[in-house]
Amino acid sequence: MIGANIKRGSAELAVLSVLETGPLHGYEIARRIERNTRGALRFTLASLYPLLYRMESRGWLKAAWSETGDARARRCYRLTAAGRKKLAPLRKEWNELFRALARLAEAHHA
Amino acid sequence: MIGANIKRGSAELAVLSVLETGPLHGYEIARRIERNTRGALRFTLASLYPLLYRMESRGWLKAAWSETGDARARRCYRLTAAGRKKLAPLRKEWNELFRALARLAEAHHA
DNA sequence: GCCTATATATAGAGTCCCTATACAGTAGCG
DNA sequence: CGCTACTGTATAGGGACTCTATATATAGGC
After folding, report:
1. What pLDDT digit, counting tens, does each position of B75-98 carry?
2. How far apart are CA B26 and CA B48, in angstroms?
3. Gap from A54 CA to chain B (nearest CA, Å)
4. By the CB < 8 Å criterion, does A13 face chain B?
5. Which residues from 79-108 of A have any strand C atom under 7 Å from their CB?
6. Exposure of B44 in the CB half-sphere (CA atoms within 13 A)
7. DSSP letter string over B5-50?
């Protein structure tokens, strides 16, 4: 699995990405991230919930207790318009970071 | 410039990368990183020095006060064998993170 | 003499992620 | 029926990394 110090900050993008398809509850968000990345990216639930609250307080997510006949109380998160608008710039920023690191790696061969 | 929370943890790789070419002192390390990445990656010196101490205490770097006729006291850092050995796995881990984030982005198109 | 660039260093705060822990409902099994 | 495993949300406490702000001092240009 990828080390904690390296994946730092990637959780936000990961959550936004899996919610792009549709609303999910916390536990399922964690499972999707782990499954879609073949286990490379994994967030403990104790990391995930505070993150969801932060993202909600920033207006990127909107939470709602599912009322539709679910036996269990589950909190469903969906992307807001603001959250969706964050996705593209965030991805761009991550791509820039990878290009920058690649350039540093190439420099010594030049 | 890339946000602080996103580039978190990338400083180690950046420092190891610029030192791959040869020994440098702190101030020059910061300048190389900024120049080689076209300003995309920039670390303030107040972030850099503690990082250099950490990396030295881990045995990845070796510091020495330059004695060769320099008017100014400058601390020169060079990669140790252990530090050089860290480079490949670190780069691999970063590539894995990149692939994982890409997979999350692709998932919603499938 | 003054300002900027060079060069190292510490203090304090903020953010993010972790381990550990707690609580509780559901389902399978013997 | 009780045991266990899985699902699901939640908080406490701590560690790690980077930031802003600050201090100190030399070198070079005007």
Report:
1. 999 999 999 999 999 999 999 999
2. 7
3. 14
4. yes
5. none
6. 4
7. TTSTTHHHHHHHHHHTSS-EEHHHHHHHHHHHTTTSS---HHHHHH
